[in-house]
What does this fold into?
Amino acid sequence: MDKLEMHHTLMAAKARKGLSWDDLAAASGHSPVWVASVCYGMNSAPAESARLITQALGLSDALGEEVTAALEAFPTKTWDQAIPQDPLIYRLYEIVGVYGPTLKDVIQEKFGDGIMSAIDFEMAVEREENPKGDRVVVTLNGKFLPYKSW
It folds into this structure.
């Protein structure tokens, strides 16, 4: 089973069981964002985590074994380079397009010449109640990796 088929199988099982990413996070002992990224095929899960996710979704026997193996498989991290049409994803592109150079400059001013790791990385999504309309709070937490001189 490839990552795309795994994703479709997991999403169908998630809908069928009526589970949230928070539910799957609790079942596997990981964050909801990480579990979602694994189920979308952009990360690999340790064997025990893959088993717990598959188990929580009620996938058993041969199908469960195939899905578990696909969850454990190392991904090829690619994405469509075209500007996405989904409004939420488009706005994230817009944020990086508008504020990317600003973030780069501020990060390098505070840390030096380098980058934020997407490998040693965590992300959280929270809801903040606000009388003007609830706010989406996205926290990106990556290790700073300085460029080296040699």
Q: What stands out?
A: The longest helix spans residues 87-111. The helical segments are 3-17, 21-28, 32-39, 47-56, 61-72, 87-111. The radius of gyration is 18 Å. The chain has six helices and two strands.
